[in-house]
Design a protein that fits this description.
By secondary structure, the protein is α+β, with helices and mostly antiparallel strands. Helices cover 16% and strands 40% of the residues. The protein has one domain: 2,3-Dihydroxybiphenyl 1,2-Dioxygenase, domain 1 (Roll), CATH 3.10.180. It has two helices and eight strands. The longest helix has 12 residues, at 93-104. It is globular, with a radius of gyration of 15 Å. The chain starts with a strand and ends with a strand.
């Protein structure tokens, strides 16, 4: 089993600009980037036009460290200063469930732990101290 903590920056529609900035400022390498418009479409929830070009997920490599990015979805609240979350990445499904359940005690569920097109178990929770964690289970491929 592996577990890593990864800083995750939530941007307000300017993730592409931030990625370019950190690419130069930190000599970072872009490993992956995907917009909301490039994700599989859900017919039950049509994607608003102003969301299509926003970054749904990106990963940069800074030295030996990963740095993740996303734009918030249009209409979601964003406040400078609290846009940094921590992504807990593990390849152990049971560990993901255990951490998610533990972190939500006295906290708030932002997204239930669920299977997505990119993870067998992904969820977002803000713990009782106001720290937001994204639980990401790596695919077993």
């Amino acid at each position: 089993m592996t577990t890593r903590l990864i800083p995750y920056l939530m941007m307000n529609g300017n993730a592409k600009e931030a990625i370019q900035f950190y690419e130069k400022a930190l000599d970072a390498k872009v490993l992956f980037t995907q917009t909301f418009g490039e994700m599989p479409e859900n017919p039950e929830f049509p994607l608003p036009t102003d969301a299509k070009e926003r970054v749904a997920h990106a990963m940069l490599k800074v030295g030996e460290t990963d740095l993740m990015f996303s734009d918030i979805f249009p209409g979601q609240p964003h406040q400078s200063g609290n846009q940094v979350t921590i992504c807990i990445s593990t390849n152990d499904l049971e560990k993901s469930k255990q951490m998610y359940e533990s972190l939500q005690q006295g906290g708030q569920v932002n997204m239930p732990l669920q299977e997505t097109h990119f993870s067998p178990a992904y969820g977002i929770v803000t713990d009782k101290f106001g720290v937001t964690f994204q639980i990401y289970t790596e695919s077993q491929q």
